[in-house]
Amino acid sequence: MTTGASLQVRPITRESLRELLIAYRAENWNGIQTLDTQLQIAESMLDPDAELVLRQVAQVWTIPSQARILDIGSGVGGFVTGCQQLGYRAVGVEPDRIGIGGRVTSIQIASRRLSSNVFAAAVGEALPFADGTFDLVTLNQVVEHVADQIAVLREAARVVRPGGAIYVACPNYLRFYEPHYKISWCPLLPKALGRIYLRLRGRNPVMLHSLYYTTNWRVRRWLAALGKEYKVLYLHHEQLKRKCSGQGRFESTAARFVQKVISLPIVGPLARRAALFWFQVREGGVEMLVLRRGGAE
């Protein structure tokens, strides 16, 4: 697989890409999301979307210039495309399969945005790359869709170089919300009850079969199984620590009040632990960075 950023982009127009994305969402998400939601998401997928994830990573880890980046679960290729445009040597892997009966796969759409040489049809449990190939491996909204999270994370840990990093983001199912169906949801609702609830809401429960509830604690436990060679950073905690130390500012009045309480003697450390616990329970998403020890960290 070629990883250079100079690969020739295939001539697909923005309108053609929009039509492909709308067709893909309609075929694979029918009954899961409303038509309006499908159209909104298709529109949001038109432009490359690498900068948000890279900005989160860069807050705690220096991304090498021309870094080798692997996106596991690369979908329709927005992240890989964005990384390539920024000069990084990015590739993606995605299972080449139809969601629930559509005629086009996400990897086929991705290959129209960039040369197909930067996308491989593969599963996260068996990556087609040598050990230590990449500087950064990303799993953005992926681990909640795989049956063997430990196997996928071990593969990510295998292909990242010493001194490299793994970015993991997924939903926090302790919230009262299901982000795929875009509806209210009881935290960790049993699947049998979830299927009944979805049918009552007029939704197709097909995606629920392949969803696995993720929480901050569960993801940390999976990542801890990688061993002492890997250091896990909970990015929301890191953000709170930086803001409390004066790097950045809290936006809301409530958050600024918490910042003042945390700075107080005696009660401050207890308030900080309480705030971190609250974030773990109520935060909308899990977001962690794993650093592989060794090399030029």
Question: Can you describe this structure in just a few lines?
Answer:
The protein has 297 residues and is α/β, with parallel strands linked by helices.
What does this structure look like?
It is a single chain. The chain is an alpha/beta fold and 297 residues long. Helix content is 39%, strand content 17%. The protein contains eleven helices and nine strands. The protein has helices at residues 14-28, 35-44, 51-58, 78-85, 106-113, 149-159, 191-200, 216-224, 235-244, 253-262, 267-282, and strands at residues 68-72, 89-94, 119-121, 134-140, 160-171, 177-178, 183-184, 230-234, 285-292. The strands form two sheets. The protein has a seven-stranded mixed sheet with strand order 3-2-1-4-5-9-8, with helices on both faces. Helix 1 runs antiparallel to helix 2 (35-44) and helix 1 (14-28) packs antiparallel against helix 5 (106-113). The protein starts with 13 loop residues before the first helix and ends in a 5-residue tail after the last strand.
